[in-house]
Amino acid sequence: MASNELAPIVDETATALALRPDFSALAPGAFERVRNLIQSNYSKSSRRSIKTAVRSWARHTAKLQVSVFRPNVANNPTLLAQEELILMTWLESLVHEQGVQGSTAESYFSMMKGWHAEVMGYAPAHSGVFISRWIPKILRGLRREFPSKLKGREAHSVTCFLPFRERYNHLFEECFQHIFIDPRKSSSGIQFAKELLAARDVDLEEILHQAVIEMMTACLCRVGEAMPTKERMLKISRADLSFCYTHDGFLQEAKVMIIPLKKSVRDRKFDQKVPIVIPSCAGPFMKCTELLWLMSALIPCKADRLSSTPLFLRVKNLRAGSSNQCTHKWTQDRYQAKLAALSSEWNIENPKLYTMHTPRIVGATTLFFAGCTEAQLKAKGRWSSDIAFIYSRVCPQQERDLIRMMASTDATPFLEKGDGFWDSVAHFQEPSEAEYDSDLDAYDELFEGDDCFV
Question: How far is CA 305 from CA 210, 238, 308, 375, in A?
């Protein structure tokens, strides 16, 4: 006969429900990979700014002799006022002592709050009970009293490229059919180009630099697309440049593959790029295809390294272990020196205002003046918003034409018309008084009837 006694209680926690995990069973390097994935929450270009913001916050808290990790204020109004005062004095020191701009101080504030929330689980001076009144006000005051000091981005005409190429412009005109030949059929064109450039004492750096400037203009390239930094992924490589030739073997066009959108993570992940076709002999002011051909022929790259090599390789000061790509500073300094050497008739007042954003502005403005449609301009520049029109400046000649159009047009027939004229244009007819009264009667009958739904 079975016993009526209760079964003894056995503590199964230690055997069946272990609460302390055995991390030694994980694959080697698991914690390091987790750390890298967490860091990937921030783009590589912003990680340096986060460190700068946290260092500044640490220096300020050390000055006040408090910890960088602030307590949770919860529902304590006195503690909330203290923490807000610490934050506000830090923001004040950023603009007055460190000399940063208001927008930069606000950015540092946001990054430090995010860092603190990741470490402690809550942001400084955060309360679920009280609303912060003074932090938003001081941030607004910083933006107003310490506005951004952005340099003006000037632009010039594409005709400025003519004096830039003055010493070797004959290569693209008189000697085109002798130089720009398919190298798979004959190498005589490359050799002939070397001889002509040597005779005019034109070095490879000059060809390389002009190719960078004109390609950025023709493709409306962003700075990071043409000259990616170490912190950014390779966006345009030598494998993205190809050439097409006619049946006779002469250079016909170049094709450059470019990522279509600025922040398209999907496109970067799956290497989805769009082709930008640049014809040769396109016009007298730009010789982009010919310059790219000379660059690739005179500065060759091994076939097995095309995908990992930047489009624009340096010629001098090569370093082992480096991609040896053209730097932003080298390109901009040389660009500004060229503009400074132009005579006064080119209207280049301050070459320092012409940065590496200028080629993109020059290209967009030229297309805008030439009658390019909005859809074409956005597609060409890979813009997804109306920021395309910030890059497209109204040219002086276009401004003159618009004023002449306004000054020679008589709009009296339109201005004298009342609303009835525009109603007729829109095929709208105002109901007569009898029709209006009948509509009101029908409306009243609807609500007075037996079947009223109100």
Answer: 24, 8, 5, 36
Alpha helices in 133-272 (DSSP H): 134-145, 161-164, 170-173, 176-179, 188-199, 204-218, 223-226, 265-269
pLDDT of residue 151: 61
pLDDT tens for 99-145 read 888 889 999 999 999 899 988 989 998 888 888 888 999 999 998 88
Please state the pTM of the whole predicted model: 0.65
pLDDT of residue 453: 39
Measure the CA–CA gap between 369 and 440, rounded to whole angstroms.
Answer: 55
Dist. CA 107–CA 113, nearest whole Å: 10
Tell me what pLDDT residue 215 has: 94
Is the confidence at residue 44, as pLDDT, over 80? no
CA atoms within 13 A on the CB side of 360: 21
Count the Cβ atoms, other than its own, within 10 Å of residue 199: 9
Closest CA to 234 of 298, 310, 177: 310
- Token pair 């085109």 is at which residue? 176
> Could you tell me the CA-to-CA distances from 292 to 216, 279, 295, 296, 303 in Å, in that order?
11, 11, 5, 6, 17
> Do residues 152 and 355 make contact, with C-beta atoms less than 8 angstroms apart?
no
Furthest C-alpha separation in the chain: 118
Domains of the chain, CATH where assigned: 40-145 (no CATH), 158-400 (1.10.443.10)
pLDDT tens digits for range 56-110: 999 999 999 999 999 998 888 899 999 999 999 999 999 999 888 888 999 999 9
Q: Tell me the CA distances in angstroms from 342 to 159, 328, 363, one per residue in order.
A: 12, 22, 20
Q: Could you give the 3-state DSSP secondary structure of residue 182?
A: coil
